[in-house]
Amino acid sequence: MKAAVLEAVKRLSVKDVPTPKAAGSMALVRVKACGICMTDYKAFSGDRTNVSFPTICGHEFAGVIEQVGEGVRFFSPGDEVICAPVANCGVCAECRNGFAQYCKNGAVIGGDGMQNVLDGAFAEYTLVPEVALFRKPKKVSFEAAALTEPLAGSYKGLIEYSQLKITEDLVIIGAGSMGLLAAMIAQRAGANTVILVDVSDWRLEFSKKCGATHTVNSTKVNAKKAVYGIVPNGPDLVFEAAGALPAAQLMFELCRRGTRVNEFGVTTEGSIQVSPATIHWLETRMDASFSVYPRVMQQSIRLQEKGFVDAGKIITHRFPLDRIDDGMAMMQQEERVKVVVTP
Ligand SMILES: [Zn+2]
Ligand SMILES: [Zn+2]
At 342, is the pLDDT very low, low, confident or very high (cuts 50, 70, 90)? Predict the structure, then answer.
């Protein structure tokens, strides 16, 4: 089969490798579409250090089951599936506490966050443990279905953890894929105001198609003044989806008394200035959210099946596997949101 093998930093070669065989509880999935996540790009660019080469990245994907191992119980060849990147054991303390994404015995397919990494979906085929398979509704396209995992990530942060409610005023910092998916969910969930803050006019313009009611370019205006110009009483919820320290700083600066915040974006080391006393007197409510667990995958499949959210809306570029290098180059461009690779 053809696969994009990351052999070293910035050395991605599309070549023939042996097609894996399904055994045990593994299914062999023929990949139909796979999104490029920022973490894939960071493995390619060398910004992510927990990568052992050679590796095949790609964890946002959907496809068709080609073959199943003898231990696969509920899926058969021909089934159209959405794959979660997390294969968890279901038995360890993390799993039983509801944190399958931190499973002590788990593996992550083509991605980041766990010690044990299985080959991912920048390939014609990939092996997926049955526990990570979900049925794809017929009416959801493979491309949109491939984005179920990022959609589920935003859903988990915004709805399950931060409990966004109808009529609330929301600020989302960062109009990248995750911020835009969050905006679409917020619109559907009945948010009153959805203010997108970003540094790119192009992305802010794009966000208007994804449910943003207002946009603020933080390089051009004072973001706090602009936000309070729109919602004079301050936001109910601030969702940090930019992944940069200044965004986390801004998240706290935007709080009025009782604002809920979600540190969703920043996953790297570093610190910001926050006064515990300010948090105390403002009674700031904190949340953070990383990755997905099975429940939110199911909810996000339902969101798409019902037509509540079309994750495919954020796809701006598509490349065949042979041209994945161009896809990686596109990740550095400002004028793109989600880049999808098809075999
Ligand atoms: Zn991802
Ligand atoms: Zn576990």
Answer: very high
Q: State mean pLDDT over 146-169.
A: 98
Question: What is the Å distance from ligand 2's center to 107 Cα?
Answer: 10
Ligand 1 center–CA 262 separation, angstroms? 18
Which is the CATH superfamily of the domain at 163-288?
Answer: NAD(P)-binding Rossmann-like Domain (3.40.50.720)
**What is the 97 CA–ligand 2 centroid distance (Å)?**
9
Contact 182, 154 (CB under 8 A): yes
What pLDDT sits at residue 343? 84
Ligand nearest to the CA of 90: 2
Q: Which amino acid is at 257?
A: R
Structural Rg of the chain based on CA atoms: 20
Give the number of the ligand closest to the Cα of residue 97: 2
Evaluate if residue 49 carries a pLDDT over 90. no
Taking the domain 2-150+292-342, which CATH number applies?
3.90.180.10
d(CA 296, CA 301): 8
